[in-house]
Amino acid sequence: MSEPRPILRYSNLPLIRTGTSPVFEFLPDGTLHALRADNVLLNLLLGCPVGGSLHRIALVVADAHGRRAVTLAGPGGGLFSADEHSACWETEVDGIEATAVLQPIRDGWVIEVTATNHLSHPVIVQAVHGLDLGLTTQFAARLNESYTSQYVDHHEIIDPELGHVIASRQNLAVDGKYPWLIQAWIEGTAGFSTDAVDFFGPQGTRGSLVRGLVDAPAPGRVRQDETSYPAIYSKPAVVPPGAVLTRRYIAQYRADHPAASGPEDVTCLHQAIEDLPVMEFPVPPQLQAAPPPTCVLHGRHPSKAGLEAWFGTDWSAVETLGNGEIGSAFIGNERRHLVTRMKEDTAARPHALILRSGSAVDAVNDHLDTTCHMAGVFQSLLAVGHPSFHRLLSPVRERFGLQRFSGQRIGIRNADGISWLGIPSAFVMSLTSCEWIYQLDGRRIRVTAEVSTGAPEATTSLVVEAGEPAEFVISHGLVGGEREGEEDASIALDGFTAIVQAGPDSLARKHFPDAKFTVEALDPTAFRNIGGSERLGFEQAATSHLVYETAAVKEFGLRLSGFTRAYVARPKAQPVWQAATRALRVSGVDLPEVEALDAILPWFIHNGIIHYSDPHGLEQWNGGAWGCRDVTQGSVELLLAIDRNDAVRETLVSVFSHQYLGSGDWPQWFMLDPFGWIQQRHMHGDIPLWPLKALCDYIENSSDFAFLDELVDWTDANTARPVDKPTTILAHVEAAVAWMRQQCFPGTALLRYGEGDWDDSLQPARPELREHMVSTWTVALSYQVLRRLEELEQRSGKSIAGLAGFADAVHADFHRWLVVDGVASGFFVFDEDGKAGHPLLHPRDTETGIHYRLLPMKRAIISGLFSKEQAEHHLVIIREKLLAADGARLMDRPAPYRGGPRKIFERAESSAAFAREIGVFYSHAHLRYLEMLSILGERDALWLGLQQVNPVGLTRSVPHALPRQANLYFSSSDAAVHDRYEAADRYEDIVAGKIPVAGGWRLYSSGPGLFCHLVRTRVLGLRRHYDRVCLDPILPEIANGLETTLTWDGKPLKVVFHRGSPAVRLNGKDVETTETPHPYRRGGFSVDASLFSSLLKDDKNLLEIKTP
Fold first, then answer.
1. Of 214, 245, 278, which marks where a domain is finished?
2. Domain boundary residue among 278, 310, 340?
3. Are 489 and 6 in contact (CB under 8 A)?
4. Is residue 477 part of a domain?
């Protein structure tokens, strides 16, 4: 075995620093690694030797032959040199000689770009500068670049001399300050774009070109999206033969800009221009060539005949694109998901999937997870032990394929170099594998990534199915810890096996001293070389990559595995992924909605299990924590939906063990063990209610009253460490009830708002609101929990201290204070003396402009706080004020946006992007609205609403939905507007469905669990309530004859739903029933649970339900 070699740390890069504050950190080839000012990282993505950076300086040259780019800074750019005083790029392309010289000035920098025309005819030249902007700490930017970008406000200022000036402000404070940058071309800015989607364009249609340099000019309007990237264009000018054109770019930085950007801010640019000295731009010595552009090889667009030859014809839920071509489909009974290149080219978010090894459902630290991206990233973010703290492979940090060497990539070596596989002709996902089919000129290649259902390992295999053998290069971007480039880690080689290990002081190794990863060749004879990033042309002592090179072969395979300790197989592990395909299915009615529902159920079970056992997502790819609110909603409800009471019990033990001793509350979130001491101490005011609700969910479903006597530890609020003073779950419950009483606003039974409620965007911006404001939704939830605890107390025979009379008091105060003029307020703010106050998010609200909020209305109905008449009244309000073409919206209009400064709510007033909760449609809230509809018996609306959050066949229910991945949960429906201002101006059009909507962040949400639980317990109406089985389907007439298969107490059960005279038959026997009590409508059937269980067989069961 070779001596261990260090994995590259960015702090050891051979950087050339230009300037002081801001200071540019360049690699010797001109790649911008970082642009810093004190603790602020101005750029968004750190540049690296192999992956490059997003910084661009270029010329756009146009003549009779068309438009072409001359790149100075960026892949394929010019020769570079730099010192502490200046940096220079030089190149000559097709008769155009170009130079760019950067020189720092006070609080900023200037770049002088010159173009000399050596052609025999005139050309039109335009200079372009593009820079990704984060304007935050390096830690925050790298935690999530998309989230960071959503809070960078880009503001256009029209100046008579400078033209389009772009000011960018980070709206999330950095140590109490708001970093800010303003930029323009001194001779005049003609156009601009502010997000990478406009400048670079989709990777499948771009190839190695940049849309903003070769296509039409920049759109010239602000777009607030997820990759902050101001690109500004100088005024074009005609350059005659032999002439020289000069253009100067200027930028000014401020560490703190408390106010929103405005017209007066351009003054600082004019002052800087006026103060510019007579500048000399000496060219530093030691010129070095820029890295060449990466050659990408995409698969051909497949024909239908080709797809059928590859995958057969057993397809369902086929998606046809606007041009008539197939976009996606589901294959076979296992519902493998097929996606074509045409669909990938049209989807805003590239297709991807998280795979997890093992066969157990629970959250343990001995399984492996990996993320596969359709666009040629065969594995990435591969981790074992914890999805954040112990990683082998680097993540994909942007969705445009710009930093092409993250994760595992495969290239084909040819006479011209290496062509890296990009978007395939077709991509197929199953619950445990992904396949890429590349139909190329003269060759068809199939790549498969698969995780084991046993050991923590994954494999990548490639087969040349048609055509000649080829030489392949397989690169792996290495982490060896938490974040690439920031960890002490090492790699050792033993033949064609690599061993990667995090440093001994890393978080992972402190808990798992023997933790390591291995990458090994399945057939070593297929390989010719193994090494580091020098195999990619980057010589350095440390390596950022592991690279395999094959001989000319038709197939090869690699196994990637990781261990936190010696792996021990679980002899009784339940095959969770196989069970997911049959845990809950529907059929029996030839309706596209039924086909779509059956297609998505296995996938939402998959999504929910990932969220539970390996909590992270595709956009929210950092994770590994349980949010107390999330795990006790989506995870618990998913586990109940798939008949896993045992896992719910284990989950509740873990959650209650993190309850704080003494105070009785919980952290907002805590990391999975053994890192549970990493947690967020302060929490939103609703958090302690959710463990109590989940406890009731569990015992109502299981009748496990003995669980109340289970001994469970506590957590110390100061150290976040376990306290070895176990008490019963009942004592934990009593502590939580005591906390609730203490947190009520004085003189009332209404819980104070604290740090917020479910809607994270509405955290209070003013300290006094934490104490004097009440969330009507939180109060309604508290009433629901208290009433259910009362029933638990009565049925268990165990008294719960502090419970008596609490729910009645909440009911009285709710109606006294929170229902104003017959309408439930969103919030209520008490005066200092507590004797009066005023509602917010209510028709009387003159402060926010928002008059209706969905959450309190639906929760008040779900909890039974409203009378039948009040429920019907609020249902009318919801339909008239809160329903949109894509479903139920959080409020009747978005919160006001003023460029970033906030008055009442934190994120709602500071997010520059109209997305996620800010976009006012959150799928989780829509699902709870559907729960409300089921309680009211609104069959048709419930059926429609279910389709509106099912990505399969979505355009049937939401015709204006843009293409999106069809096998993953999307957390929001984001209107395709450019910014908050357009959203406010055109909100009525958004509601009416006149503006297209895109899918939001994927997978990491409680939503998949809520969806599955809703289908089983509300739509199909199959649930337990202590000693009764409730059969209460809420199905539309068109679903007459629907069938479902599921498990009940571990036994297979088929259920058939019919219209007719009310009756229930189980295995051919009529079952005696009573009517379930219900406050708002006629109830369903109620069956004695013991009788129901006695009629079940071990192998096959048929339940027939007839409803009027």
1. 278
2. 278
3. yes
4. yes
Domain identity same for 1052 and 1076: yes
Report the DSSP pairing between strands 470-481 and 545-553.
antiparallel
Q: DSSP assignment of 476-488, as one string?
A: EEEEEESSTBSS-
Residue 366: count other Cβ atoms within 10 Å of its Cβ: 20
Per-residue tokens: 1081: 């409508």
Query: Which of 1059, 343, 957 has its CA nearest to residue 596?
Result: 957
Q: Token pair 């990704």 is at which residue?
A: 132
Other beta carbons within 10 angstroms of residue 242's beta carbon come to 10
Q: What is the mean pLDDT of residues 891-899?
A: 97
Run of H or E including 389: none
Asked if residue 194 lies in contact with residue 229, where contact means CB atoms within 8 angstroms, the answer is yes
857 and 968 part of one domain: no
- Span 919-961, pLDDT tens digits: 999 999 999 999 999 999 999 999 999 999 999 999 999 999 9
Token digits of residue 978: 């450019």
pLDDT the model gives residue 277: 79
pLDDT tens, residue by residue, 96-146: 999 999 999 999 999 999 999 999 999 999 999 999 999 999 999 999 999
Check whether residue 509 and residue 657 sit in a common domain: no
pLDDT band at 1015, cuts 50/70/90?
A: very high
SS3 sequence, 411-474? EEEECCEEEEECCCCEEEECCCEEEEEEEECCEEEEEEEEECCCCCEEEEEEEEEECCCEEEEE
Q: Whose CA is closest to 300, among 265, 344, 270, 266?
A: 344
Nearest to 945 by CA among 854, 863, 827: 854
Residue partners of 690: CB distance under 8 A and separation at least 6 = 628, 629, 632, 633
C-alpha span between 790 and 822 (Å, rounded): 28
Helix axes 592-613 and 939-948, enclosed angle (nearest 10): 60
What is the token pair recorded at 1079?
């406050």
Structural domain range at position 36:
10-278
Whether residue 947 lies inside any domain: the answer is yes
Decide if 1033 contacts 1021 (C-beta within 8 A): yes
Query: What count of residues does the chain have?
Result: 1108
Quote the tokens at residue 216: 């039409």
Three-state SS at 505: coil
Asked whether 405 and 545 are in contact (CB, 8 A), the reply is yes
Tokens 């919160």 belong to 895
What is the pLDDT, as a whole number, of residue 580?
83
How far the first Cα of the chain sits from its last, in Å, is: 74
Contacts of 1014 (CB under 8 A, 6+ apart): 927, 930, 931, 934, 946
Helix 645-657 / helix 729-742 crossing angle, nearest 10 deg: 60
Q: Are strands 1051-1059 and 1102-1107 parallel, antiparallel or unpaired?
A: parallel
587, part of any domain:
no
Model's pTM, two decimal places? 0.97
Could you tell me what percent of the chain has a pLDDT over 90?
Answer: 91
Question: What's the chain's average pLDDT?
Answer: 95
User: Across-strand partners of 112?
Assistant: 101, 248
- The structure tokens listed for 694 are 């989940």
Torsion angle (degrees, nearest 10) of CA 968, 974, 977, 979: -110
148-177, pLDDT tens digit by residue? 999 999 999 999 999 999 999 999 999 999
What percent of the chain is helix, strand and coil (3-state, nearest 5)? Answer: 25, 35, 40
Q: What pLDDT, in 10s, does the model give residues 280-328?
A: 656 666 678 888 888 999 999 999 999 999 999 999 999 999 889 999 9
Q: What is the DSSP letter of 1038?
A: G
User: What is 1045-1098 written as a DSSP string?
Assistant: EEEETTEEEEEEEEESS-EEEETTEE---EEPP-SSS---EEEEHHHHHHT--S
Residues 339 and 703: their CA atoms lie apart, in Å, by: 44
